[in-house]
From TrEMBL:
GO terms for molecular function: protein serine/threonine phosphatase activity. PROSITE patterns: PPM_2. This is PPM-type phosphatase domain-containing protein. Pfam families: PP2C. It comes from the Eukaryota. InterPro entries: PP2C, PPM-type-like_dom_sf, PPM-type_phosphatase-like_dom. The keyword Membrane applies. CDD domains: PP2Cc. Residues 51-292 form the PPM-type phosphatase domain.
Length: 313
């Protein structure tokens, strides 16, 4: 496959350099102070924010942690715009680290077009710099006034937990999906069963990613996009890498979140992570839990003050 058939150019391979993986101290989100947080993790961690919590743990059968995350927490022009994302890398950490540092800052406008373009730009930049490196899935959610903007590629999930139900806001782009199979075959690729798992060209189980330049004609960076209005019925939002769902179903995740409503977000995130690993998940597990009911009143008050719907990060 010639990479030059699309706007990705192959560059000379660069030597693997050591990464500084120290995690900076993370401050809590303050209501009346503009704040931007941009972090990534390649080790176990537990973070407690004011309305969110993050837990990441390396799977018992993994050589290294390849999950990363990013956040932007701001109060700008009397309007909230909070962004949370998880990146699940494969074939190395380069793609997940790169995307965690660049995707959110590449978003120009908070609409479907602006977010898709940010995914595409991040993908092009990474593939141009790292034509022989791996790739990453992405699950991104932005709180824009009283709406959730969700976008994902690959099998990293976003779940909205309500008082008596749940809704999956993401879409699994995997090689077993009939529509994705048709798209890849139409592009000249193929999918085969390899070790009891459907894989693109016999190699990769997901069908959309940032990175994977070698398979770029097939593994596109176009995300599934969904807009959801926040209501008083919404309890929490869970963003998680697929390691969580090797052991827990979305229904089980939503039940645990409801049972633990009195706990802090980080305690809920840690409970979910431990349940997955103890339940037999072999993958790395990273979970972000956002308590939406604590956002709801404030988000609605901000929405009433401003009609502006697009911001620059």
């Amino acid at each position: 496959m010639e990479v030059s058939n699309h706007p990705y150019k192959a560059l000379k391979s660069w030597r693997k350099k050591g990464l500084n993986l120290d995690i900076c101290e993370i401050n809590k989100c303050f209501k009346y102070k503009k704040q931007k947080i941009s972090e990534f993790c390649l080790k176990d961690l537990l973070i407690e924010g004011e309305k969110y919590g993050i837990c990441a743990k390396k799977g018992n059968f993994r050589k290294q942690m390849e999950d990363t995350y990013d956040m932007v927490l701001e109060l700008h022009n009397s309007s909230f715009k909070h962004a949370f994302a998880i990146f699940d890398g494969h074939s190395g950490t380069e793609a997940s680290v790169f995307a965690s540092k660049n995707l959110i800052k590449n978003i120009d406008t908070l609409d479907q077009k602006g977010i898709i373009e940010a995914f595409q730009l991040t993908d092009i930049l990474f593939c141009n710099e790292n034509p022989k490196k791996g790739g990453t899935t992405v699950a991104l959610t932005i709180l824009d006034h009283d709406h959730l903007l969700s976008a994902n590629i690959g099998d990293t999930k976003i779940i909205l937990i309500k008082n008596s139900s749940y809704e999956v806001l993401s879409y699994d782009h995997v090689a077993s999906d009939i529509d994705e199979q048709s798209r890849i075959e139409h592009a000249g690729g193929y999918i085969i069963n390899h070790h009891n798992s459907m894989r693109v060209c016999g190699q990769i189980a997901i069908t959309r990613s940032i990175g994977d330049a070698k398979y770029k004609d097939f593994l596109i960076p176009i995300p599934y996009f969904k807009t959801t209005k926040i209501s008083i019925e919404d309890i929490a939002l869970v963003i998680a890498s697929d390691g969580l769902f090797e052991a827990l179903s979305p229904e089980q995740v939503s039940n645990i979140v409801r049972e633990k409503q009195g706990y802090t977000p980080s305690e809920i995130a840690e409970t979910l992570t431990d349940e997955a690993i103890d339940g037999g998940s072999k993958d790395n597990v990273t979970v972000i839990v956002i308590k939406l009911q604590e956002y709801y009143t404030l988000l609605c008050s901000q929405t009433n003050r401003s009609k502006q719907k697009c911001f620059n990060f």
